[in-house]
Structures are given as structure tokens and as C-alpha cells.
User: What shape does this take?
Amino acid sequence: MFNIDFNNIIQLMLPPFLRKPKNIEWLKALVKPVIDLYIIFYAYRTQTLYSLCITGQVIYLEKLLNDKFNNGNVGIYIADGSYNNAPFLYNTAEARPDTFIYKTSEGKPDLFLYNTAEYMIGNDFIVMVPVAITFDSNEMKSLINLYKLAGKQYSIQTY
Assistant: This one.
């Protein structure tokens, strides 16, 4: 639908008795601004379709970063962030490992229960970039911020 051959259209729309080289070249000159706008539109359409295919999923973020900074080669990858293991409290009917809560007078180590967000140590994910790749960190951060999920924290490290 978007692949238009303007030269072919000029040939087909022109009556056969007017299909002389001089007339065809004159019509091509008239249509040249439209062709230039079409080329700009087609490039914008291609870029927009590519950006619509990118989501916040890890595989798509990796593809975006590798396409942008590593010429499509695999090298940049995303690793998980680090978390503290949260203690879980179960009912006895669940037959899970026991978690004991002691009084202060018993002299056992303290067990603190926090919200889920407080168990987060640092980042939700880490973008690992090879040392051989030169990149602008501000440009990479803006790309990641555009596609990552809201509220997710990350860092960029080289390896």
C-alpha cells in the first residue's frame, strides 16, 4: 500500500500518444517534490514501525541497545538486579519451613518484616555493556528510560 512507483504511474496515466521522452521527463520534474516528500514519509514510517515493535521486555530492550550501539551484534545484555531474601510466614497446614519469631529476652537474632519494596537492595536490572563498545551514557539512558517500565531502577555497567 505504501510502495509507490511514481515513474510507473506517470507512464500509465499519460495517454499513449503523449508518451514522448520530453513529456515524460517534464512530468517527472513536476512530480519530483512529491517524490521527495514520499521518501521522507517512508523513512519516518519505517522508523516509527521499528519503535512500535520495541517494548519494555528484556529481549526487546537488548535488541534496541544492540542495534543502536553495537551495530546489531550481540554483546549488550540485561542482567537481573539484586534482592534480599524476604522471610515468609506460613500457616502450619502449608507444611513449609518454620520461621520463628523470638522475644528480645531470648537473645536470638532479630527478625524484621518489611514491605516488599524495602527488600530491594539496588537496581531492578543492570545493563551490561562490553568495554569495546563506545557509547554516550546519556543517550543510552534516554533510550532505556523511554521503553522501561515506570518505577524500575537500573544501572549501566561495563564488563
Remarks:
- Strands lie at 77-80, 125-129, 154-158.
